[in-house]
Design brief:
single chain; 27 strands; five-stranded antiparallel beta sheet; alpha+beta; 605 residues; six-stranded antiparallel beta sheet
């Protein structure tokens, strides 16, 4: 019985440990806060955008046309980084050197005929907000300021923007030079994908040595107070990775900020706001509020092939390709979605559109596009990539493909010999999907499975223990019935009631009688009882004493006086005296419980 208690306690401890180790811990991140009210943002226009997916997380007057001021330089630097090399030399002419008074410039001022490398120009534009450098860079790339402005507007159209028009590369006021907070968020997100721009915008300080006209070292400091303490350290933000400030009287204060936390990148644009000199609230407090809201309430998650709901016939027919190590059909690497905290990727819906090219080149080809939505809102996009090799075992056959709305979309086998290969791949994929789902089920329901196993083990143990107890009780009843039946009416028995003695898995019945020889044995072993239980008998005769016999050992008592506790004495008083005197020896000899016949109840020693 003690062994079963120890086992039960062990199982209980295992169950408790399993609950502690594997029980799901409530996540604080699942609690989402409400978006800041429009009154909480002091700037007239504001947009918070996820850079990876382009999802707008917060907006206030996002499409209102406003003057951008110096945040225009983000697009200027972006275009220059795409179209120039770092070691190109930019020469300054009269137009670039002499600009309107009060406009930001580098110090010492540039001179006519001075040459500065394109790399140094990047930092002059983004850190020092140098207006003359923007003019020089624009003329270096396009030949004139007007042509460069046209190049800027062309880039805007490529990004799909309709509410932006630029007339110069630096953002100095012009009535026809305008944009919106949403458009600037898209421009900023696109620019941050460029590695040169990304490196420049996060730089806090920069200096470059003498040029052909200037013998002094020029020192540049980033004007963005959330990245570095340019005018004050009160607004520094530890997740800030860059941005650009802007100001004119007509535009007010404008600010574009990039921030990254745990791989999640956000772009915040505020326009027509208050500067830091006016105190809080201002463009920096607005940006900090929006950034904190975005990081606290949204998370960026990757979409893998296994997360897709392959409901489309295109994928159902060729889903086996997804199980290959290098499948010819796959998703783009940037397949990610932005979701509210606590929402699983499995809750995202997908819409597939096919865009079949007229011809396929060797390598990767974009043949489709997937749009991901959550509760009707777009949360991400990804491309479907078909990899063409020189000897493909499948090919895109437009002539025999079926129509899916407006595009030809199906991939067909090149010959009949691939039918078996495709069938085998489909079967293999189904098996892998089944066992993958099974593994996921066990992983997600580990606690329930452990509890079921423990309950089953405990049930089996209880059943076996109960069966053993019932069997032992049956044996005891049989032994008592045998002892009573063996007592004759002619004998004057001191007691006729059987006494049960228990050992590990045995039952003994002892009785005593005077003037006769009685034989007592433990109950008969049932046929199902293992043969390892030995049969041991005891025989008593008043003249010869009590004998215990077994297969290996026999113990005997010599005289009646030594067995007075069994009823050999003539009077009860003599039995009691002899029992008290020899109690210790008898207990050591037989190891049984002593029975006091005067008090008629057992005493355990």
């Amino acid at each position: 019985m003690r062994k079963f208690r120890v086992l039960s306690l062990t199982l209980a401890l295992v169950l408790l440990l399993a609950n502690v180790l594997y029980a799901p811990v409530p996540k604080a991140e699942a609690k989402r806060s409400a978006a800041p009210s429009k009154g909480a943002i002091s700037s007239y226009s504001a947009v918070l955008m996820d850079i990876t997916t382009g999802k707008v997380l917060y907006e206030k007057n996002p499409h209102t046309k406003l003057y951008p001021a110096s945040i225009t330089k983000i697009l200027t630097t972006y275009i220059a980084a795409e179209r120039s090399a770092d070691d190109e030399m930019v020469e300054f002419d009269r137009e670039s050197c002499f600009i309107e008074g009060g406009a930001a410039r580098i110090w010492p001022y540039t001179q006519i005929g001075e040459k500065i490398s394109m790399k140094d120009c990047y930092y002059c534009m983004m850190l020092a907000s140098a207006n003359e450098v923007c003019i020089a860079v624009g003329k270096h790339i396009s030949g004139s300021t007007k042509k460069f402005a046209n190049l800027m507007n062309k880039k805007v159209k490529e990004l799909g923007l309709k509410d932006t028009h630029f007339t110069n590369p630096n953002g100095l006021h012009d009535d026809n030079h305008y944009t919106t907070a949403y458009d600037m968020a898209v421009i900023g997100s696109a620019a941050l994908q460029n590695p040169t721009f990304r490196k420049v915008t996060r730089t806090k300080t920069y200096n470059f040595k003498k040029t052909n006209k200037c013998k002094q070292t020029r020192y540049l400091h980033n004007h963005h107070n959330m990245l570095t303490a340019y005018t004050t350290s009160a607004y520094e933000y530890k997740y800030c990775i860059g941005g650009k400030t802007g100001y004119t009287r007509a535009a007010g204060n404008t600010l574009v900020t990039f921030a990254e936390k745990n791989g999640h990148k956000l772009c915040c644009v505020v326009m027509k706001g208050q500067g830091s000199k006016a105190g809080a609230p201002n463009i920096y407090t607005d940006t900090t509020t929006l950034m904190n809201y975005g990081f606290a309430n949204y998370t960026l998650k990757s979409v893998k092939n296994s997360d897709l709901k392959l409901s489309d016939s295109f994928f159902n027919k060729y889903s086996s390709f997804f199980s290959d190590d290098n499948p010819p059909l796959k998703l783009s690497k940037e397949a990610k979605v932005i979701l509210p905290r606590g929402v699983s990727v499995k809750e995202v819906k997908q819409k597939i559109e096919y865009k079949m090219p007229k011809s396929l080149k060797v390598g990767n080809n974009v043949i489709g596009h997937i749009t991901y939505t959550y509760k009707g809102d777009e949360v991400g996009q990804s491309d479907i990539i078909y990899t063409k090799s020189k000897t493909p075992y499948v090919s895109i056959n437009q002539s025999s493909g079926k129509k899916d709305g407006s595009n030809t979309t199906l991939i067909n086998s090149k010959n009949k010999s691939n039918a078996f290969h495709n069938f085998f791949n489909n079967m293999r994929f189904k098996f892998m999907q089944f066992f993958g789902n099974l593994g996921t089920f066990f992983k997600n329901n580990l606690i329930i499975i452990i509890i079921i196993i423990l309950v089953a083990v405990m049930g089996i143990l209880v059943f076996l223990r109960r069966r053993e107890i019932i069997h032992s009780r049956g044996s005891y009843k049989y032994a008592s019935h045998t002892a009573k039946k063996s007592s004759s009416s002619d004998d004057s028995a001191i007691f006729s009631k059987g006494k049960r003695f228990k050992s590990k898995k045995q039952t003994k019945t002892v009785a005593a009688d005077t003037g006769s020889t009685l034989s007592f044995s433990r109950s008969k072993r049932p046929k199902s009882r293992p043969s390892r239980f030995r049969r041991r008998t005891s025989t008593y005769n008043p003249n010869e004493g009590l004998h215990f016999s077994s297969k290996h050992k026999t113990t005997s008592a010599k005289t009646n006086d030594e067995l007075g506790f069994l009823g050999a004495s003539k009077t009860p008083d003599e039995r009691a005296k002899k029992t008290k005197r020899r109690h210790k020896n008898t207990m050591e000899s037989f190891g049984h419980n002593f029975y006091d016949y005067n008090k008629k109840k057992p005493k355990k020693r």
